[in-house]
Task: structure prediction
Amino acid sequence: MGSQSYTSSFATIYDDIMERVPYYYWYQYLKHILYYYDKKPVNIMELGCGTGNMMKYFSNEAESIYGIDKSEDMLAIAQNKFRENNNVKLFNTDMSKKIKYDSFDFVYSIFDSMNYILEFDELSNVFENVYLNLEKDGIFVFDINTEYRLMDIVEGTKKLEGDFYTCYWRDIVDEENEEWIVELNIYLDKEDEIENFTETHVETSYPLEKIKKELLNIGFQHVDYYRSFTFSKGKSKNNRVHFVALKQKPEVSSFRQILTRIKWGIISLFISNF
Result:
């Protein structure tokens, strides 16, 4: 099944719908992953940057940060947020296309972006593109909804409302194709007229060890995956997992790692695993 997603209608209401997401804690988790592996990046790239909600945190400390997204409408909103940031560059491209943007210390992708890649060969292309754009000591971090989580979603329709919109969100689980489908029916209140739009989002997932093997085959020297918002090894029955892939094998302090594991073991008790 194809996916027509992040059109102008949904882009318009995206930030309002995602307001409950604790982006700052997601940012802190990424920062602690960098600390865990003793990385201090200055040149950063985000894949699937959307409206730039995570980039705004990194833009305050990076020498340069690139945002890649295939939705022009989402990028248009991001562009407005970064009009005064000379270190931010946005690109309307498909992250699976082999393009040498620059050389980065850190590439990341969050909040299901990898789940939107519906063919494993295309996911492999993304990994190859990341490898091409990473410095020799670079780090790549991304999250993914597990197969278990997608198939465990409860089907049904919910109503989301804001000051200028009503959105009917319908969850569908396609067990045969192992896909989670979201059908959106959006009504935008524009002056005295109500405009109606529909769009479809489709996500899939892949076995965790298959993903790890592919990263290693491409050339990454070390790959870990964790239950999200912890530093405990990820499992197939976790809802979400964060992958960490490094071009060089890490040499880090065990004391640093122990402290980080303990800290996020506690923090994870208070963060919803969206």
The chain has eight helices and eleven strands.
